[in-house]
Design goal:
alpha/beta, 13 helices, 8-stranded mixed beta sheet, Rossmann fold
């Protein structure tokens, strides 16, 4: 059993709501994260550890009584209670967006756990034309400051003023302005899919400005290689999928037959779990937004836009910071391709997560989180 002497001067409660560093005061432990404060008063009895937890925000206070045998168990109970009590707030994607004026316009961004002293992690979303996922970033419970931003023309950021003149370098400039606004000498950058390509472009054009480490998830680093992987995946599907798809692309026929094949492809390589087939079908039938259409093309199989000749694989040979490559075992990026990228970066790590497609965080979140956190924790240890 633990008693007062066993409770340290400080401890951490890691919840989706935030990371609370609880410091001992005269009569309680207090910590904060963002707009929330947490106060814990302990009571001790022969049969365990009792505590009264009060979480306050501008909207009011909520109190919770908890019993546990150990401090570790109590912290987990409190974290679970926080996440349940504030579930609606955690799931609200828009209410806590902030805005940064950049040379290209105003971008929306999110920032969590900025009171922590660990190296910030910057999440770069996919697409192009996608948007950030603040809830997923919070669910990682990294123990690091977390920053996300919607690229120009995406999500809650301003529209691109002139798509005809917009280039990857414009996105790189915007990304640098955002990273420079973060009060830290270095950052860990996580890029997913197109976000990994933009991250590599950023590293190449800025000479790895402020980059301490990289996490490249299901990376889109070359339009040509991406298409080669798509053809290999179509071949692996068996039957005549590949031949039919090629014939339809040749005729620029993206009608019902094309969408049916794309839906089958998506159910294996975008999503992989049977319960996500409906999402795969919806994705195949969804019209691309204007940013995706101009930069990529009419669908995920055809790149005839500004990214037609996109290739940042040369940056791999210049990476000297710790790097993690990760993907699903049934990803749009084939395992063989991921291995090629991994072998080009000395000292890098690779993780291929089973039973997951390209959207692996939605399909295997526990393994996804464990892979990222194992890498981040090792970075923290090396910095000690």
């Amino acid at each position: 059993m633990q008693d007062a002497a066993d409770i340290p001067q400080s401890f951490v409660i890691s919840a989706v709501l935030g990371t609370f560093v609880m410091e001992r005061t005269d009569d309680a432990y207090k910590g904060y994260s963002g707009r929330h404060t947490c106060k814990i008063r302990f009571r001790f009895a022969h049969h365990g550890l009792h505590a009264t937890v009060t979480v306050g925000s501008p909207d009011g206070k909520v109190t919770f009584d908890v019993r546990s045998v150990t401090l570790e168990d109590m912290c987990q109970h409190v974290a679970d209670w926080m996440d349940s009590t504030f579930a609606a707030e955690i799931e609200d994607f828009a209410s806590d967006a902030r805005y940064l004026e950049t040379s290209g316009g105003r971008i929306a961004y999110w920032a969590y756990d900025t009171h922590l002293t660990t190296t910030p992690i910057v999440f770069v979303h996919g697409g192009p034309g996608g948007d950030s996922n603040p809830v997923k970033a919070r669910r990682l419970r990294t123990g690091h400051p977390v920053y996300l931003f919607d690229q120009m023309g995406c999500g809650m950021s301003d529209p691109i003023r002139d798509l005809n003149s917009w280039t990857v370098s414009e996105y790189v400039s915007q990304m640098r302005e955002f990273i420079d606004s973060i009060p830290s000498e270095s950052v860990i950058i996580y890029g997913a899919s197109w976000g990994a390509g933009l991250t590599a472009a950023y590293c190449g054009e800025t000479d790895f400005h402020k980059v301490k480490a990289l996490i490249l998830c299901s990376p889109f680093l070359s339009s040509k290689l991406w298409y080669e992987d798509a053809l290999e995946n179509l071949r692996a599907m068996g039957g005549d999928y590949r031949e039919r798809m090629l014939a339809l692309i040749e005729k620029e026929d993206y009608g019902p037959e094309f969408r049916d094949i794309l839906a089958e492809y998506n159910s294996r390589y975008l999503f992989n779990l049977p319960e996500h087939r409906e999402w795969a079908v919806d994705a195949a039938n969804e019209e691309p937004n204007e940013v995706f259409r101009r930069l990529c093309g009419p669908n995920d199989m055809v790149t005839d836009g500004k990214l037609k000749d996109f290739d940042v694989t040369d940056v791999l040979d210049r990476i000297s910071v710790p790097t993690l490559f990760m993907a699903g075992d049934s990803d749009s990026v084939t395992p063989e391709r991921l291995m090629q990228y991994y072998r080009r970066v000395r000292g890098s790590r690779i993780s291929i997560i089973p039973f997951a497609g390209h959207v692996l965080a939605s399909e295997q979140f526990p393994a996804y989180r464990e892979t990222i956190m194992s890498f981040v924790k090792d970075l923290d240890k090396s910095a000690e």
